[in-house]
Design brief:
18% strand; two-stranded antiparallel ribbon; 5 helices; 6-stranded antiparallel β-sheet; alpha+beta
């Protein structure tokens, strides 16, 4: 994985012998392309590669010898791959066009006479800087992602909901009040005898005799 691609672009953009510097994204990982406007010193690069414990093997020897129209369909121009370790079988199949895993590769510009250095890992960038006689500064530690700032929200005062007024039911009609009737009281005589009270009736006048 290559770090600080933007810084690399700025550092190499105006170096003598470099025509173009590109950051090329791929689904398998980003690549750092440096297009030269003069031939590469393959012997010098091979010496630097070996000093760091890597190997530079040839790639796609057979497809590159096909006619140009057919070669462009089967071959992307890669001629060398820089690898850490590789078996004899992988070294053989790489000449047929089966690309092994590496840290960088060299390609022939199919539309020009010069080479393209393609770094796929940070170690490839280090080899490139040493080839260009530039001081290599390793990338710094990854910056921690900023924590999301949670803004304090002021709680809105609760909105009082209108309370429904209870519907007053009409009071039930009062029941008729029974008026108590006077109870006849007994009459007490001087002798202490109680005589029940009699209701006085109107005396009828006797019939008059005829004259």
């Amino acid at each position: 994985m290559i770090a600080e691609l933007e810084r690399r672009l700025v550092e190499l953009r105006f170096i003598e012998g470099i025509e173009k510097v590109e950051h090329v994204p791929y689904p398998t990982g980003d690549q750092f392309w440096v297009r030269f406007n003069q031939p590469l010193n393959i012997a010098k690069l091979d010496e630097i590669v070996g000093k760091h414990g890597y190997r530079m093997i040839k790639f796609a020897t057979l497809p590159s010898k096909l006619p140009r129209g057919i070669a462009e369909l089967l071959w992307d121009g890669v001629t060398h791959i820089i690898v850490k370790k590789i078996s004899g079988w992988s070294s053989f199949t790489s000449k047929l066009g089966f690309e092994p895993e590496g840290i960088a590769k060299l390609a022939t510009d199919l539309h020009g006479p010069y080479r393209i250095f393609m770094a796929t890992e940070e170690e490839g960038i280090q080899l490139l800087y040493e080839y260009l006689d530039l001081k290599y500064v390793p990338p710094g530690p990854p910056q921690p992602s900023p924590k999301p700032v949670i803004s304090a929200k002021i709680a809105a005062p609760p909105v009082s909901k209108p309370t429904s007024q209870p519907v007053q039911q009409p009071a039930p009609a009062a029941a008729p009040v029974a008026v108590p009737q006077p109870v006849p009281q007994p009459i007490t005589t001087p002798a202490g005898q109680t005589v029940p009270e009699r209701t006085q009736t109107k005396k009828e006048s006797p019939p008059k005799e005829p004259s």
